[in-house]
Design a protein that fits this description.
The protein is of the alpha/beta class and 287 residues long. The protein has 2 domains: 207 residues, Alpha-Beta Barrel (TIM Barrel), CATH 3.20.20; 57 residues, no CATH class. It has 9 helices and 7 strands; from the N terminus they run βαβαββααααβαβαβα. It has a 7-stranded mixed beta sheet. The two termini are 28 Å apart. It comes from Lachnoclostridium phytofermentans (strain ATCC 700394 / DSM 18823 / ISDg). Pfam families: PHP. GO terms for molecular function: 5'-3' DNA exonuclease activity; 5'-3' RNA exonuclease activity.
């Protein structure tokens, strides 16, 4: 059976491997397809496609799916909408994501100012980690704080400095879920709610969220996911059936920023069948 990974990050956002390195790792792990889904950016896709083409010329056929993970605000929570099979050259998509990145940069500078006010020696350049085109997220702040001895690990970084309840945190201006879904649809993509059980919603609240997103054009739910335990996958499958949605699956791979999560296999037992990609492509062909 062929396996895939439809939720993958590179160092263009908060992963630690380049798009080329991710593609080469996917080949090493004998995956049939991966989706590059960096946060609020599509800049890594072109490099990944070149790397996949090079692998094809060497005899390995890796299907490279253009994607993005867009942050949106829902009832003062940050939710993520995956866009799979987007046209990364779509001008409107590029424009909206560029504006989101500019707003993110402004927020990051405010957080840097807050940390500097408490004698933490940090600059925007420090957070790039020699990757000038990267999208800086709070994971980059955490990495800096760990490497410079301010905290021991990610949990302490978010507890003391980066969490919503800290004095250093600065909220972002997000797209609405409706606008995020609309943006993905008009770029020819498939909008999918990422990791639905990570938002700390009750099942009743999650049902309301999925119902609302469905009314905006949501097509899928990320059903197979690294953090699933127990009956989690079954819970999401029930919503898939209830709202006639498609299933997707992904590891949410970030390289060493999430060292327990491996590409394709998550925490060791993740298996995402290629059949899900076939169903997504069938949906696109029948639209």
């Amino acid at each position: 059976m062929k396996y895939v990974d439809l939720h993958v990050h590179t160092n263009v956002s908060d992963g630690t491997l380049t798009p080329t390195e991710v593609v080469n790792l996917a080949v090493q792990k004998k995956l049939a397809a991966i989706a590059i889904t960096d946060h609020d950016t599509i800049y890594g896709i072109e490099e990944a496609k070149r790397a996949a083409l090079a692998q094809r010329e060497n005899g390995y056929e890796l299907e490279l799916i253009s994607g993005v993970e867009i942050s949106a605000e829902y009832k003062k929570k940050d939710i993520h909408i995956l866009g799979l099979f987007v046209n990364e050259k779509d001008p409107h998509l590029q424009d909206i994501l560029s504006k989101a990145l500019k707003e993110r940069d402004e927020r990051n500078q405010k957080m840097i100012d807050n940390l500097s006010a408490d004698d933490i020696d940090i600059t925007l350049d420090d957070l790039l980690f020699d990757e000038p085109n990267t999208v800086i997220t709070r994971a980059h702040f955490a990495r800096f704080l760990i490497e410079h001895g301010y905290v021991k690990d990610n949990n302490e970084a978010f507890l003391k400095y980066l969490g919503y309840d800290t004095k250093y945190y600065v909220p972002r201006n997000y797209l609405t879920p409706k606008d995020a879904i609309s943006l993905i649809l008009q770029a020819g993509g498939i909008p999918v709610l990422a990791h639905p059980l990570l938002y700390q919603l009750s099942l009743e609240e999650l049902n309301l969220l999925i119902s609302e997103l469905k009314s905006y054009g949501l097509v899928g739910l990320e059903t197979i996911y690294s953090a699933n335990t127990g009956f989690d996958e079954g819970i999401i499958r029930r919503y898939v059936n209830k709202y006639e949605l498609l299933m997707t699956g992904g590891s949410d791979f970030h390289g060493s920023n999430k060292p327990r999560i491996e590409l394709g296999s998550g925490m060791g037992n993740l298996k995402i069948p290629y059949q899900l990609v076939k169903e997504l492509k069938c949906y696109l062909n029948n639209k």
